[in-house]
Amino acid sequence: MAWLSRQFSTRVIVLIPIAIAINIVLGYTVQTILKLPIYLDSIGTILVGVLAGPIAGALTGILSNLIWQYAPGIGGGTIGPFAITAGVIGLLAGIWGQLAVYKSRPASGRQLILAAIAAAVIVIVVVIPIINNPAYTDPNNGYPSWVYTAAAVIAVVVAVVVVGFIYIRRDLAGLWVAVAGVVTGIIAAFVSAPISAIAFGGVTGGGTDLLVAALRQGGSDVLHASLGQGLFSDPIDKTITSFVVFMILSGLSGRLLARFPLGERLVRDRAA
Amino acid sequence: MRPDPGPDTSVAIPEPGAAVLPAYVLRVPTGPYRALNPLTKFVIAIASAVVAFGVRGWTGPLSILVVTAAIALIAGVSRSLRRFVLATIPIVASILLVNAFLYPGATDVLFRVGPFAATGTGVTVALQAVLRVIAFALSVAVFSLTTATDDFLADLERRGTGRRLTFVIGSAIRTIPTMGSRAIEIVEAQRARGLDTEGSIRRRLRGIVPLAGPMVFGSLGEVEERTIALEARAFSAPVRRTAMRALPDSSTQRALRWVVGLGSLVLVAVSVAGRFPLP
């Protein structure tokens, strides 16, 4: 119980509504004003999870989607049922927070090079099983080859960006932040696919539906087409979100961070 | 804390110097359906969503659509429902196209457009999914149109829901418009500094940080002030707040809530158990 009530200090109670508003407004702005094919609607959720803990993160995610559905005027036609996914994302973020994934870890020399190589290897290792996943293996005709090419190109771009991030900022945290983002994305895809298949006939009404259509054209069934689309979009989206959260956290003062329940796991050691 | 004002307290002509209760304290929703207790309307909305998604085939979505439309007519909000229906257009179009033309394993071809064939199975599935989406969106919309957020939260708190949860929900709903106008200000300010919101994907991706940065840092700066303000007002005091508003409720409504709530779960259980075959 102490573990639970520690996650809900007054400061966290104040942070959660702001995080919910950030999720909704930023998600809406990125999708409609910047017109990008990603969601970016879980920055607030991950922020609360990392600063306060798993249950607070899960609550932020669930409430974000339910309130988004309820709020008139900003769309939200089908976002509600995905509250389950958002809850899982918040829960995972809390676990990353307790493992101190988002803590800055300055490094130099050989350590830095090793981390960069490790990051590239991890990204490739994580992506290969996705490409060979049953969701993408098709009994009939095989998927259009651009699906595989695009997956490979995106994997390479992600690997290069992660390595570049680690190298330019001289910070090992980039490695862990990328892993946290990719893992969160894969789990989110597995949670979302059944929801989208059962509730909405496998589509979401966004640009990603093109991918669903391509996978179905290749012979995939409703659930696997949605899963295939999710395994494509979610790891990218969550990795970007993960890095945005990391940059936000590194921009906040240690004095402010330390006041949150998991704050001490984010503040850089004085000795370092 | 002031005593419960009760139903006959008049605030029309306040005594000089007397504490004047703000209008919203005494305002009670009136009119058909609106006057129901917020919790009753909430249970009806949740039960509708559960049935629309849980009972497969035509039965679930169609019956909920009829019930929701009837409630909207009675409550006089059918006109405002239009924009909620319009909001579902992208997903409705997507469901129809993807399922009608690309339904896995369907062979009963209705007609062909180029290399794509529309199948009977696909069209059936698509129409059912469309009805489900609209029924769900409208049941939530009717709740949101007939119930003031304050009323709902006040009622929940009076029933014993934690103050922290009601604060989080209420504060989030109030923060969204403020944050929205802040986002517009930031986008315009950054555009004036040359942010590209129309160019290639790569250029638009670079717009994320100039947008998210000021928005997140600006609002996180408020956390400290709000925390101090709440603590100064005994937010974490270990006592319950006095309920200033008692929204009308009745034993009939309580019974209705149980019947509708449990009834929807039973319906879904029967449906999942195989009473209606899954599409």
Structure commentary:
The complex is a heterodimer of chains A (272) and B (279). Chain A has helices spanning 2-6, 10-32, 43-52, 54-70, 83-98, 109-131, 145-169, 173-200, 209-217, 222-251, 254-257. With 272 residues, chain A is mostly helical. Chain A folds into two domains: 2-98, no CATH class; 109-250, no CATH class. Chain A is globular. Chain B folds into two domains: 35-148 and 248-267, no CATH class; 161-239, no CATH class. A two-stranded antiparallel sheet of chain B has the order 1-2. Chain B contains eleven helices and two strands, in the order H-H-H-H-H-E-E-H-H-H-H-H-H. In chain B, strand 1 (109-113) and strand 2 (116-119) form a beta hairpin. By secondary structure, chain B is mostly helical. The interface between A and B is large, with 67 and 71 residues.
Jot down its keywords.
heterodimer; A: 272 residues; mainly alpha; 2 domains; 70% helix; B: 279 residues; 2 strands; 65% helix
Write the layout of secondary structure elements.
The complex is a heterodimer of chains A (272) and B (279).
Chain A: H1 2-6, H2 10-32, H3 43-52, H4 54-70, H5 83-98, H6 109-131, H7 145-169, H8 173-200, H9 209-217, H10 222-251, H11 254-257
Chain B: H1 23-26, H2 38-54, H3 59-75, H4 81-87, H5 89-101, E1 109-113, E2 116-119, H6 120-146, H7 149-158, H8 163-192, H9 201-205, H10 208-232, H11 251-275
Antiparallel strand pairs in B: 1-2
- The coarse silhouette of chain B is flat
User: What is the N-to-C succession of helices and strands of chain B?
Assistant: HHHHHEEHHHHHH
Count of discrete alpha- or pi-helical segments spanning 4 or more residues of chain A: 11
Largest sheet of chain B: 2 strands, antiparallel
**Overall helicity of chain A:** 55-70%
N→C terminal distance of chain B = 57 Å
Strand-pairing-aware structural class of chain B:
mainly alpha
What percent strand of chain B? Answer: under 5%
Strand content of chain A: under 5%
> Largest interface: which pair?
A-B, 67 and 71 residues
Cα shape of chain A: globular
Number of domains of chain B: 2
Number of strands of chain B: 2
